[in-house]
Write a structure and sequence with these properties.
single chain; 458 residues; alpha+beta; Alpha-Beta Plaits; Multidrug efflux transporter AcrB TolC docking domain, DN and DC subdomains; five-stranded antiparallel sheet
Length: 458
């Protein structure tokens, strides 16, 4: 904090040079600071570097590990690594560009900083936790003008008059406008620079007392040079400091649970101080609960629609067998790729259930039609399976072809949400489409071979 644009630019050049030394990196683009009116306003001590890269002979995790090592070799910086969309989401959720934000609240800034560093030291060794950093705060020089209330009373100067003088002297006040042709200029009244550029000058500045006599400012105020924090963050009127971190190769929920365990067991949190955990995992927990409820409702609605179509609980249940068949492929796809059940992945499962149910309806309705034509149960199952094989495979193939680009480009910028969903749907499509042609016919024949054909005609 407080680093000039010139110094930040020099550091940025060093970082870009380090990044470009990585074989996979093709180009970089740097943006230093953001405007005050920007949605994600940032001062000149912060910078964002967009890195374009092409993976070659190693996976993305190894590449990102080297990126973090290069950044760690540059002294005096704190950095986080992530994709642009993910950074925006993290910033909206936590106010920081990281997926995990540990917020420490308390009255004293020094104690907050000490506690934050204790937490950082404790959690740095957790597997899958990267980019751990404490919110940057530095002591900057300040000049304080403290009113001597007894002297103000003696000189008959009210606090309101004193505050107005200080504001007028150092901030200035617009008292009029000066016109020059077509242009106008504000006329601002403030103290002469000779009295504001040094402590001695401020002390000798003159203020009018209640009797109209000019007296030095130092008679009614104490002027001292002190150090103070460059910024004070607050949330819900409480002072706070944030320890931020990202995850790599492990789901964020399990990491946060381990962080909570370590902090509770090994870090001494002073009285009147509290720790709060925020970030993607918090919204993920809420969304997961909502989606689980919606999944149950979706399955129930699917069952009701199936019963409305077939008027048979057994037939409806047979069609629903497709759901676990699709689940197998979706879970396996997650295990092979990210090994993390994310919100997009859960949405993918809900989508997949609808597709899998449709395949079951195609088969069962064809079997039912065959039995109404007087064909034997076995022959009806064989003919129906042959008849529906082509449309089921065509639908699965076209859907898979549309999803493959999203799956293959899962590491591309902006594809963080679509890719996990596509992986689940693609994996579930493959297993449900192929197992559907074996499992459903077998179960259908096993159940209805024990029942009279007349029941099949209902």
């Amino acid at each position: 904090p407080g680093v000039s644009l010139y110094e930040n630019n020099n550091l940025g050049k060093i970082i870009e040079r380090e990044l470009l030394s990585i074989p996979e990196v093709t180009s970089t683009a740097r943006r230093t600071g953001r405007g005050e009116l920007d949605e994600h306003s940032q001062s000149t001590n912060g910078a964002e570097i967009d890195v374009n890269f092409e993976l070659k002979d190693r996976p993305q995790e190894e590449f990102l590990t080297e990126v973090r090592e290069k950044l760690a070799s540059v002294p005096g910086i704190a950095s986080t690594v992530g994709q642009p969309l993910g950074h925006r989401i993290d910033h909206m959720l936590t106010g920081t560009r990281a997926s995990i934000a540990i917020k420490i609240f308390g009255p004293d800034l020094t104690q907050l900083f000490m506690t934050a560093n204790d937490i950082k030291a404790e959690i740095e060794g957790i597997e899958g936790l990267v980019d751990v950093s404490v919110e940057q705060q530095t002591e900057t020089p300040e000049l304080q003008i403290r009113a001597k209330r007894d002297m103000l009373a003696r000189h008959k100067i009210s606090m309101e008059e004193f505050n107005h003088y200080i504001e007028l002297a150092f901030s200035g006040d617009k008292v009029s406008e000066v016109y020059e042709g077509q242009r106008s200029f504000d006329l601002v009244l403030r103290l002469n620079k000779n009295y504001t550029e040094s402590i001695e000058g401020i002390k000798s500045a003159m203020i009018v007392n209640g009797e109209g006599v000019m007296i030095p400012l130092e008679e009614v105020a104490e002027i001292v040079s002190v150090g103070g924090p460059n910024s004070i963050s607050r949330e819900n009127v409480q002072r706070k400091i944030v320890v931020s971190a990202n995850t790599a190769g492990r789901d964020v929920v399990s990491i946060v649970e381990e962080i909570e365990q370590r902090v509770n067991d090994n870090v001494n949190i002073p009285e009147n101080y509290m720790v709060e955990y925020g970030g993607q995992f918090q919204s993920a927990k809420k969304a997961s609960k909502t989606l689980m409820i919606m999944t149950i409702i979706a399955i129930f609605v699917i069952f009701l629609l199936l019963y409305g179509e077939f008027k048979d609980v057994t037939l409806s249940a047979i069609v629903l067998i497709n759901l676990p068949l699709a689940l197998i492929g979706g879970v396996f796809a997650i295990f092979v790729t990210s090994n993390t059940v994310s919100i997009p992945a859960i949405i993918g499962f809900i989508t997949l259930f609808g597709i899998a149910t449709r395949n079951g309806i195609l088969l069962i309705s064809r079997y039912q039609f065959g039995t109404t034509q007087g064909i034997t149960l076995r022959q009806s199952v064989i003919d129906g399976s042959k008849d529906r094989l082509t449309p089921i495979l065509m639908t699965a193939l076209t859907s898979a072809l549309a999803l493959i680009p999203m799956v293959m480009n899962g590491t591309a910028s902006g594809n963080e949400i679509q890719s996990p969903m596509a992986v689940v749907v693609l994996g579930g499509l493959l297993t449900s489409s192929f197992l559907n042609m074996y499992v459903i016919p077998i179960i259908y024949e096993m159940i209805y071979s024990r029942k009279p054909i007349s029941q099949n005609n209902d």
